[in-house]
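Support case: user asked for a sample of complex input and structure output to validate their parser. Sending the pair below.
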Amino acid sequence: MKRFLSIVGALIGVAAMWEGYKWFGQTTDGVWPGTSRELPVATDDLTMPHVGEIVGSLFEPVQRGRSETLAVFLLKSAWFTFREAAMGFVIGTLFGLGLAVIMLRTRVAERGLLPWINISQTIPLIALAPIIVTWGRSTFLSDTQAVALIAAYLTFFPVAVNGLKGLQSPNPADVELMQSYAAPWSQTLWKVRLPASRPYLFPAFRVAATASVVGAIVGEISSGVRGGLGRVILEFASRYSTGPERLYASVLAAALLGLVVFGLVAIAETVLLKRSGEEARA
Amino acid sequence: MTSLASRLGSVWPPLVTGALILGVWEALVAGLGIQEFVLPKPSSIVQAVGTEWEGLRTAGIETGTIAVTGLILGVVGGLILALVVTRFGWLSDSLTPMAVAVNATPIIALAPIFNAWFGLTDDRSNQAVVVAVVFFPVFINTAKGLSSVDPDQIELMRSLAASERTILTRVRIPSAVPFFVTSLRLAAPLSVIAAIVAEYFGGPTNRLGPFITQNASFARYDNAWAAIVIASAIGLALFAVALLIERLAAPWRDGPTEG
Amino acid sequence: MPESSTQPAIQLKGISKIFNAGTDKEVRALEAIDLDIQPGQFISLIGPSGCGKSTLLRVIGDLIESTAGETKVFGKPAHQARLDRDYGMAFQKAGLFGWRTVAANIELPLELMGWDKTARKAKSAEMLDLVKLSDFGKHRPWQLSGGMQQRVAIARALSFSPQLLLMDEPFGALDEMTREHMQLELLRIHRETGTTVVFVTHSIPEAAFLSDRVVVLSPRPGRVHSVIEVDYGPGDRSDETRQMPEFFKKTTEVREALRAVEVAAGETL
C-alpha cells in the first residue's frame, strides 16, 4: 500500500514537473530568465503536449472513423508484444540455462564459451532484426517468432552468466554430501545446485524479462513487423506533427508493459520462494 | 601468480571455440547451399567489410562518436547523482526504487520523443537516447555500492569519530568502485546498441543504423552484416576499455573475498 | 587487587536500552546496568545470546545511544570520549579494507587524526612488529589467513594507542589453536600497552583465561547477573595457566553462573 502510494506520488510529481517546466518556458518565451539562452527543450504544445491531452488521447478514437479508442488499441498492441516477449523470454531462459549447465559440466566448455557469451552482448544483433525477419520468412518462422528470437538473444545472457554462478554457488560440503550418497550428477543438479542457484537466477530473470520486452519492441521497430507496440511507436512518431500526444501515450504504454513484465517476474519470485518457506533474498 | 602456461591455457579455449563457431557457420552455409541473402558466409562478410570500407568507416565514426559521448555523459551523470543521493538518505530511499522501475522499461523507445525535442538532425537526439540507456544501470549500481558497505567498517569509522564526509570518501566510495566499474562494463556495449536503434527513427543517413536498413532493403545482407561487425568492434573496444578501467581501478577485486 | 583511588576508566549507571520502543517489535536489550571498570583492567562480557553484551559494548563505544542511564569514559560522557578518539575497536570479522594494503589499513586511524606520512609509516611498522606481521605490510588483506587478518585488525585498533580497547568476539571465527595463540598475543599487548580492554565473548575458557573480571549477563532484558573476579597470582598468564587447577575452578565458576542465568531465563539445555 505504501509502495503503491509512493508510485502514485512519483507519477504526480513527474506530471507536475512536466507542467511546471512547460509553464516556466511559456512565461519566459523559452529562454532562461534574463538571458537569451534557450531552454534545452522547447515548451510549445507540439514538443510537450499537456499531460491532460496525453491522458485524454487515450479515450479518443485511434483513427477518425474507427470506434476503437487509443487505450484499447494500445492494450491490444501491448498484448501482441507481450506474447513475443514471453516467447523470447522462455526460449532465451531455456537456452541460457542449458548453456549454464553445459559450462558447469565441463570446465573446457566454461573457458571456451564464457568469453563468447560476454562478447555476444557487444554484438548489436538486435540491429539485424530486419534480416532475421526476412530469414524467418524464408524458413518456417512467422514474423512474431522471428521477433521472439531477437528478444531471446537479449534474454539468454543474464540467465547463462548468473545461472552458472548460481550452479557453482553451493557449499563444497553440500556437493560432497551428495557424493557420499553416491547420488548421480543429475540428482546433485536437481537437489542441490538448482535450489542453491535461485538467489542468482531470480535477479537474472528480472533482468531477462526487461530485456525480452526491449528486444521485442526494438525488433518490431527495426523490422517493421506489424501488430505490436514497436510498430505503433514508429507510426505515431512519423505522424508526430498531427498528434504528438499519441506518441507519448504509446511510449508510456511500452514503459507500462516493461513494468508489468518486471512485476510478473517479481510476483513469481515471491510466490516460489514463499512456497519453499524462504525469505526473498535480494 | 599466473604463469605463462596457465595464461595460454585460458586463452586457447575461447579461441578454439571462436574458430569452431566460424568454421561451422562457413561450412553450413556452403554445405547446405544456404543462399547468401539468407545468411552470408563469414568470409563473404569479411569481404564486404573490405569493399564497403569507406562507407563503413564514416558510419562507424559517426555512430561511434554519438555512442561514446552519450556513454560518457550518462556515466558521469549516473555517478554524480548516485553520490548526491547517497549523501541524503531520504533522496536515495525515494529515487532508487523509481530508477529501478524506469530501468525496467524499454528506454530506447524514448528515441522518437527525443527526436521531437532536439530535432531530427541534431546529434543531441540520439545522444540523449544513449545517455538515458546508460544512466540508469550506472546510477542504480553505484548507489547500491555506496550503500551496501560492511556495517562493521562503518562502525569502526564511527568509533574513530569520523565525519559522514570522511566515511564517504574513505569507505563508501572505495567499496562502491567495483559496483561502478561493473556497471561500466554493462553500459559500454549498451551505448552502441542504443545509438544504432535510435538511428532507426530517422535522422542523418551516414550512420550505421541506416547503413544496415538500406543494405537490408537491397538484400545486400553481406554489407549489413559487415556493419554489424563494425558495430561489434566499437562495442568490444568500449567493453575492453571498461575492463581495463576495472583492472586499474579495482585491482583488489582479484581477491577471493569478493569473488 | 589493590583498591584503586583513581577515577574508573568506565562508569555505567542505570543503563537501559529498548529497541523499537512502543512498537510490537519492542526489545528490552539492557536494563539497569551498573558497572565500574578500572583503568588497565581486562573485562569480559559473557552471556547467552540475546543478553545484550554486544549492545552494551556499543553503548560504551557511543555507537548506540542508551535509552536511559549515564555512560562515562575516563570521567567524560562517552560521546566526548569518542570525539577524543579514546576507542580502539575490533570485531568478529576483521573488517579490513580490501582496497588498502595491510600497512595502509593499520594507518587508517592515524590518517583520520592527521598524522604525517613518515610518522604513520613508522607507527604501522611498529604495530606490524607488535603483531608479528612485519613481512606482510605490503600484502592485501585477502592474501592473509583469518588469524593474520584478525591480528591486523587488532594492530589497527591499537595503532593510535587508544586508552580503551573494545572487542566484539574478535577471535570467534578462528580455529582453536590460532585462537589460543591470539589470546596470548592479546594479553602480551595488553601488558605492554596498559590499555583497558572490554571483551565480548561467548567462550567460557576464553573469558576465564583473559580477564581480570568476567561480567556474566542474563538475557531479556540484559542485566548484570554476577561479576567473577579472576586472579591467578603473580606472573604472566601463559599456556601453563590453562592447566592450573585455579583456571579450571574459574571456568567452572563462570559455567555455573551461565547455567544459573539460563535456568532463571527458563531455558534449560
